[in-house]
Structures are given as structure tokens and as C-alpha cells.
Write a structure and sequence with these properties.
By secondary structure, the protein is an alpha/beta fold. It is built from twelve helices and eleven strands. It has helices at 13-16, 22-42, 65-74, 122-127, 130-139, 148-158, 173-176, 205-214, 241-250, 295-299, 325-336, 339-360; strands spanning 5-6, 80-84, 162-167, 184-186, 189-196, 202-204, 228-232, 256-260, 266-267, 282-286, 318-322. The strands form three sheets. The chain has a six-stranded parallel sheet with strand order 4-3-2-8-10-11, with helices on both faces. It has a three-stranded antiparallel sheet with strand order 6-5-7. A two-stranded antiparallel ribbon has the order 1-9. α6 (148-158) crosses α12 and α11 packs across α12 (339-360). It is globular and about 60 Å long. The N and C termini lie far apart (43 Å). Bound molecules: carba-nicotinamide-adenine-dinucleotide. The site of carba-nicotinamide-adenine-dinucleotide (CNA) has 29 residues, from loops.
């Protein structure tokens, strides 16, 4: 089983070669790909992406959102997996980690941490849980509403096209958007429930929220000793068993992977993009291109990552739509003929949640 791990430094391919233009890079990648294949054949080091040329047959008529839309329309029983990160919740008012200036990592000075990531590390939490709970107070789903991206995922489910939604988010907005628990994998856990670190007594979100909002570290009422930690997976903790069990089952049968609002740097989540079949199209909806493997690892056949280079023999199935997730999801919905349905769903659900909040306050 794997621990949650942040490998950001190893995965910034663009920063390694700042002087090389992307066109030059593409040509070099192409050459490297040929050499890699030659060596792989000579040394009998064929990886799964080399072994079946059939599986690389083009499945998209064009490498664009339109290509993806036609593919969905032509595959009546298309099994779609969605993978999401903090970017699908930023328009709800919840900051992500890594966006410059607005991301959490750029706004942690007040917590006096040894390094920004410490706030999400188990070892640091055991020593000093206060910064985590101070941050939790800012992040707790209080009055936040799911975004159009969340409701687009729900629409995929409603249309019978969603095989599973994998999220790194801990904000519970997917649940709030009405995705049923069996379709949802909260890979990094959730604030929805919590547990005493000493006696494992379970606690609910409303119980924890009350303490966190009062600025009190939640202490177990059963053993009167342990701190109650929300069931979010901190760096250094194991991912839920459900994640491992379902990824093994789901990714091999997916017909389409849609990745939204993630920098794809936290492992093992990030490498799920490699778990789909070699001819399964992958659509990235994000502000920036992410998830491309560095050229050395690709050369060595270690991991493919997303390949937006149309000239590569492994390309021809990955599409990047760059911009705001909500806009990208609405565009997809429009092109699929569900545009009004999505707008309606967002409006009705937001009205319902607003009414609920008014009643509570
Ligand atoms: P990240 O590393 O902060 O990356 C976010 C990505 O989304 C970046 O590539 C951004 O450019 C992009 N992005 C941000 N806003 C938008 C937008 N509106 N439209 C399109 N793209 C956008 O976050 P990841 O999720 O990749 O990192 C994984 C961590 C973040 C997980 O372990 C989470 O638990 C953790 N996290 C979760 C939340 C949450 O639950 N809402 C908030 C902050 C951090």
C-alpha cells in the first residue's frame, strides 16, 4: 500500500529545459521515442504501451474537445472516470494548494511552519495540531456550495456514463452535489467524519465543526485524551483501502478519463492517469498543462504521463483544454446537448442550499 506523497519537485518537466522551444522539444521527444523503442526491442524491455500496436490505434477523430464529444456521442455506454483536484472547488471560494498568490502554500506564513507542507504532515500534526485546525477553520465547508464542475460530474452520473469519480478533495462538495457514496472515491479522505487518534472513537462533521469554529482543538469525549482528527489523509498516512481496491478494478475498464483542476503532483493519485488502457482518451481541463512525465522517465519507459505531443507514437489520445474548470465543463455540456440541463441543475441546487443555510442561521 502506498502513502500519500508530494513529488512536486520531480515533476516539473518544463522547468528543466527553459531554453528549448516547445517545437524543438517535440522533435527531440520524437527522436527519443524512436531510440527508446529500438532499445526496448533490443533489450526486450517492452512495456505495456509497446506491446500492442493495435491498442494505439487512433480512437479520436480529432485531438480536441470536439473529438472527445464525438467519441462520447458515438459510445453509447461510454464508461467515464473523472479525476479531480482542488481546482474544481476554487470557484466555490476554497483556495487550492499551488496556484500562485491565491494558493494555500503561499499564505501560510501566519502558522510559523518549518515548511509549508508541514501543515498536512502526520508527524507535524502529532507534535502540533494547532495550525492544521486553524487552517481547517478556514477550509471547512461552511456555506460553500458545489461548483458547476461538481454538478457536471453529477450529470455524467445521471446520464449513466460515470464509472467512478476519484477526488483528492477533502471539502465534501462532491457529496453535497449529490454524488452517491458508491460512485465516489475520496482518495485523500474527507472532513465528513473523524476519529480519536488514541481510542479510535468516531466523530461526525457537525461535532468537529463546532469545536473547530470555536477555535478549540477537538479532544475525544470517550477517552478524554486523544485529539480527534478529521479523516483526511495527511502526508505519511495510508490511502483508504477503497482507493486501492477500486483503482485496480476501474481503470482497466474505463473508456474515457477526464482530469480536472489538479496539478497532478501528489502520488499515488497522479499516476492513475497511466492506469487506463493505452487507447483510452484522456481529457485534461485545467488552467495549465500538467501531468506530463519528464523526458528521462519517459525515455526509460518508467511512466508515460499525459502526452499532448501529436507526433509521438504514444500520442493521439490526450487533449488539454486550458482555462477555468467551470467554463470547460459548461462547454462540454453545451456540446453534448446538456448545457441548459447543467445550468438548471446548478441554479436549483444552489437555491436549495441557500434556503437550507438561511434556515440554519
Ligand atoms: P493543487 O496542487 O493546488 O493544484 C490545483 C490545480 O488546479 C493547479 O494546476 C491550478 O492551476 C488548477 N486550478 C486552480 N483553480 C482552477 C480553476 N478554477 N479552473 C481550472 N484549473 C484550476 O491541488 P491538487 O488537488 O492537485 O493537489 C492535491 C492536494 C490538494 C490534495 O491532497 C487535496 O487534499 C489538497 N487540497 C484540497 C482542497 C479541497 O478539498 N478543496 C483545497 C486545497 C488543497
Amino acid at each position: 500500500m502506498s502513502e500519500r506523497d508530494d513529488t512536486e519537485k520531480e515533476e516539473k518537466p518544463n522547468e528543466e529545459t527553459p531554453n528549448i522551444s516547445s517545437e524543438q522539444e517535440e522533435v527531440e521527444d520524437c527522436d527519443m521515442e524512436k531510440i527508446r523503442k529500438y532499445l526496448a526491442q533490443k533489450l526486450r524491455l517492452l512495456d505495456s504501451s509497446d506491446c500492442d500496436e493495435q491498442s494505439h490505434q487512433k480512437v479520436l477523430r480529432e485531438l480536441s474537445v470536439d473529438g472527445i464529444v464525438n467519441y462520447i456521442k458515438e459510445n453509447e455506454n461510454c464508461k467515464i472516470i473523472t479525476m479531480a483536484g482542488a481546482g474544481i472547488s476554487t470557484s466555490a471560494g476554497i483556495p487550492d494548494f499551488r496556484s500562485p498568490s491565491s494558493g494555500l502554500y503561499h499564505n501560510l506564513a501566519k502558522y510559523n511552519l518549518p515548511h509549508p507542507q508541514a501543515i498536512f504532515e502526520l508527524d507535524y500534526f502529532m507534535e502540533n495540531p494547532e495550525p492544521f485546525f486553524m487552517l481547517a477553520k478556514e477550509l471547512l465547508p461552511e456555506g460553500f456550495k458545489p461548483t458547476p464542475s461538481h454538478y457536471f460530474i453529477r450529470l455524467l452520473w445521471r446520464k449513466g456514463l460515470l464509472l467512478r469519480h476519484y477526488t483528492q478533495n477533502i471539502d465534501t462538495l462532491e457529496r453535497m452535489a449529490g454524488l452517491p457514496p458508491d460512485i465516489l472515491v475520496e482518495a485523500h479522505g474527507t472532513f465528513h467524519t473523524g476519529r480519536c487518534l488514541k481510542c479510535r472513537a468516531p466523530y461526525t462533521l457537525p461535532w468537529m465543526k463546532e469545536k473547530i469554529i470555536e477555535g478549540v482543538i477537538p479532544k475525544c469525549e470517550e477517552c478524554n485524551e486523544g485529539v480527534v482528527k478529521p479523516d483526511v489523509v495527511l502526508f505519511g498516512e495510508m490511502l483508504p483501502e477503497r482507493f486501492h481496491y477500486l483503482t485496480d478494478r476501474d481503470f482497466a475498464q474505463a473508456d474515457l478519463l477526464i482530469i480536472m483542476g489538479s496539478s497532478l503532483v501528489v502520488q499515488p493519485f497522479a499516476s492513475l492517469v497511466d492506469r487506463v488502457r493505452p487507447n483510452c482518451p484522456r481529457l485534461l481541463i485545467n488552467k495549465e498543462k500538467v501531468g506530463m512525465q519528464d523526458r528521462l522517465s519517459r525515455f526509460l519507459g518508467l511512466r508515460q504521463g499525459l502526452i499532448f505531443d501529436t507526433r509521438s507514437s504514444h500520442g493521439g489520445r490526450d487533449v488539454a483544454w486550458l482555462g477555468d474548470c467551470d467554463t470547460g465543463c459548461q462547454l462540454l455540456a453545451d456540446k453534448l446537448g446538456w448545457g441548459d440541463e447543467l445550468k438548471d441543475l446548478v441554479k436549483k441546487e444552489h437555491e436549495r442550499l441557500d434556503a437550507e443555510n438561511t434556515k440554519k442561521n
